[in-house]
Amino acid sequence: MSAFSAIGEETDKDQNEFTPGLEPQPTWCPGCGDFGVLKALKGAAAELGLSPDEMLLCTGIGCSGKLNSYFESYGFHTIHGRSLPIARAAKLANPGLTVVAAGGDGDGYGIGGNHFMHSARENHDMTYIVFNNEIFGLTKGQTSPTSPKGHKSKTQPHGSAKEPLRPLSLSLTSGASYIARTAAVNPNQAKEIIVEAIEHDGFSHIDFLTQCPTWNKDARQYVPYIDIQDSDDYDFDNTDRREASEMMAETEDALHEGTVLTGRYYVDSERPSYGQEKRTIGEMPEEPLAERYFDDDYEWERSYDMFLDKHR
Ligand SMILES: Cc1ncc(C[n+]2csc(CCOP(=O)(O)OP(=O)(O)O)c2C)c(N)n1
Ligand code: SF4
Ligand SMILES: [Mg+2]
């Protein structure tokens, strides 16, 4: 068993392609849910037949942000809350790349919340994984946007007086076209969801419940969970916006009452991604922008000259 298989067994040999040659030991604490995300992402990349040079993984800052140190692909460990704008720029410059952005609940729903909303609204073709452990892990357990009301921490010693943010509902109203919730305690479901999210052409958001046994002592908060697609109790059409919205609200209410629901909440395969919209109006390069540097025949358009021509 490698250092990366703390949760679940290694089943697919090809996953090892995504383990860095110079294998850095993860500095995550024993039992941390982040191992489950790494395991699921490696499994998904292998199942999709991707190779490390076809992928870009952009991460934010936090324990979650360390993901790309342990995942072999192109990587960009960005600044706090800023993985999405970097990921978007890379996707626009090189449309053939499979782009995954990842970060924590503080990173993505707090300081980076604005980027989350607008990346979803614009339907950029990428997968965004948010490690939701309901606290700031790296900085030692402060209250985060998803901490439940009443949650005690060093920053809220008498218990948080704030209602938590509702990530699934926010994602839907912002415009994400694939929305799912999974949990590190089930890397198999998580892997399947990541596969679907990467295959989806548009902005895919995965709210990934990850336990933090060090700073959020209720580390088994995500066990047991229910898969809404496998349960007869939840019959809804996840291509219908209104039904998806109701299912999300029920899920978000249930979480803090101790019932953990996971699954695919919304899938809109009809809506064109941002890249597709840009291609339609002739504003999207077919080849990676970087190739222009090697193309002797390429006629550079100077934006300053274009500006002058337009206003002469
Ligand atoms: C601009 C900026 N503000 C604050 C910090 C300090 N900081 C580092 S990680 C972090 C929060 C991490 O929480 P989360 O995003 O939930 O990730 P986790 O560690 O829980 O995976 C903060 C506030 C920072 N690095 N940069
Ligand atoms: S502090 Fe929490 S989130 Fe960070 S590595 Fe340890 S268990 Fe994981
Ligand atoms: Mg966190």
Low-confidence blocks of residues: 1-12
Radius of gyration: 20 Å
Number of strands: 10
CATH top level label: Alpha Beta
Domain Thiamine pyrophosphate enzyme TPP-binding: 61-208
Pfam families: TPP_enzyme_C
Cofactor: [4Fe-4S] cluster
Protein name: 2-ketoglutarate ferredoxin oxidoreductase subunit beta
Can you offer a commentary on this structure?
The chain is α/β, with parallel strands linked by helices and 312 residues long. It has one domain: Thiamin diphosphate (ThDP)-binding fold, Pyr/PP domains (Rossmann fold), CATH 3.40.50. It is built from 9 helices and 10 strands. The strands form 2 sheets. Strands 2-1-3-4-8-7-10-9 form an 8-stranded mixed β-sheet, with helices on both faces. A two-stranded antiparallel sheet has the order 5-6. The chain is globular, with a radius of gyration of 20 Å. The chain binds thiamine diphosphate, iron/sulfur cluster (SF4) and magnesium ion (MG). This is 2-ketoglutarate ferredoxin oxidoreductase subunit beta. Keywords: Oxidoreductase.
Short précis:
The chain has 312 residues and is an alpha/beta fold. It has nine helices and ten strands.
Summary keywords:
9 helices; oxidoreductase; oxidoreductase activity, acting on the aldehyde or oxo group of donors, iron-sulfur protein as acceptor; 2-oxoacid:Fd_oxidoreductase; eight-stranded mixed β-sheet; binds magnesium ion; binds iron/sulfur cluster; 16% strand; 312 residues; Rossmann fold; binds thiamine diphosphate; alpha/beta; two-stranded antiparallel sheet; single chain; 2-ketoglutarate ferredoxin oxidoreductase subunit beta; OFOB
